[in-house]
Amino acid sequence: MDGALRPVLVVCAAVVLSLIAGWAVDRSLRTVDTRHPETPLWHLLRRCGVPLQVVILTAILRGGYRSAHFADEHAAAIGQALVVVLIAASGWLVVRIAAAVTDSSYARYAAVSHDVPKIRRLRTQLTLIQRVFTAVVTVIAVASVLFTFPALRTVGASVLASAGIIGIVAGVAAQSTLSNLFAGLQIAFGDMVRIGDTVVVDGEWGVVEEITLTFLSVRTWDERRITMPVSYFTSKPFENWSRGDPRMTGTVFFHLDHSAPVDAMRKRLLEVLEQATEWDRRAWGLVVIDSTPTTIQIRALVTAKDAEDIFNLRCIVREQLIDWLRCEHPYALPRISTAPAPGRPGAGQDRGMTPMPDSKDLGPGPGAR
């Protein structure tokens, strides 16, 4: 009976000790977080409670499982399993701590900085660094687990001896993957594109939503996701509308009749812009940029703080100016003139057109009696 209860008591004692240690660490982090609310690191470190308790539990069990007097045929397997779990839990804990540190660094910088491009650049760099660190920790943890098995230790020498040849073969076979990996690092530290940037790739307009070591995801305006290898951005030209200064200048073109009231249209444009919240009040203008035998081309220039606002503002200006012309100055809309335009008396005389005489002024026709 004593032999059956001993393993249960050892496991229960280890669980209780791990829970007490986890509670003490969490209480300490909560106290520090209350005293220093300006630093989000202590609050983020509380996310590491579960992997920390697993590490403590497996470490206690690994150190005291022999006192449970397991059978010899089970003791070795239990010890091996505890080592594997301890290595995996330690890697999990290290990754969680690294994530807390990177998130804290980004949060503190974003709270004090007002430079949006620099904030996006830091976010992109920290995200890729965290992914690289996670991959390295995972590889080290897996390698450590494999080398805990005696059978793999004996073949370690031969594996290391052939590592050079295997590395060359793997490099040739996975050259596209490696190129994407180095392209991801180049994007992170070369500041070519960042998370949140507005880009145009292959004629598609969208916002960079995610950047990994191998691919990049762009969310288009209609909520589609375009996924492409990161090497695309290091080998082909693309438009980045958010690099440096996200403010943009947009244009709206109108093809109108030569009689269009340009001055009145310019005043109406200013009224429309003053009512639009998308206009950042940096610049505006309306000029005639071209003319043809039948129409003139008018360009309205507007500005906004980013690509989304400039698109909406262009639509607003186009819609309201066309509606204003249709209601107030219909003669200014392009058309084939066959009669005087409605709403403007004497339009035919102003344009050099001879009005058609009334039927009673024509006199009797040739067949009149």
Q: How would you sum up this structure, described in words?
A:
This protein has about 375 residues and is α+β, with helices and mostly antiparallel strands. It folds into 3 domains: about 1-180; about 195-240, SH3 type barrels (Roll); about 250-335, Alpha-Beta Plaits, CATH 3.30.70. About 55% of the residues lie in helices and about 15% in strands. The chain has 13 helices and 8 strands. A 5-stranded antiparallel sheet has the order 4-3-2-1-5. Strands 6-8-7 form a 3-stranded antiparallel sheet, covered by helices on one side. Helix 1 (about 1-35) runs antiparallel to helix 3 and helix 4 (about 70-110) runs antiparallel to helix 5. It is elongated, with a radius of gyration of 37 Å. The protein starts with a helix and ends in a 19-residue tail after the last helix.
Number of helices: 13
Helix content: 55-70%
Unreliable sequence segments: 168-174, 347-369
Rounded Rg: 37 Å
Q: Would you tell me the structural class of the helices and strands?
A: alpha+beta
Choose one word for the global shape.
Answer: elongated
Describe the structure using short key phrases.
single chain; 369 residues; alpha+beta; SH3 type barrels; Alpha-Beta Plaits; 3 domains; five-stranded antiparallel sheet; three-stranded antiparallel sheet; 13 helices; 8 strands; elongated
Characterize this entry briefly.
This protein is an alpha+beta fold and 369 residues long.
Q: Which helices and strands appear, and what pairs or packs with what?
A:
Elements: H1 2-35, H2 41-45, H3 49-64, H4 72-112, H5 116-146, H6 150-154, H7 156-161, H8 163-173, H9 175-190, E1 198-201, E2 204-211, E3 215-220, E4 225-229, H10 232-235, E5 239-240, E6 248-256, H11 262-275, E7 279-291, E8 296-304, H12 307-328, H13 347-350
Antiparallel strand pairs: 1-2, 1-5, 2-3, 3-4, 6-8, 7-8
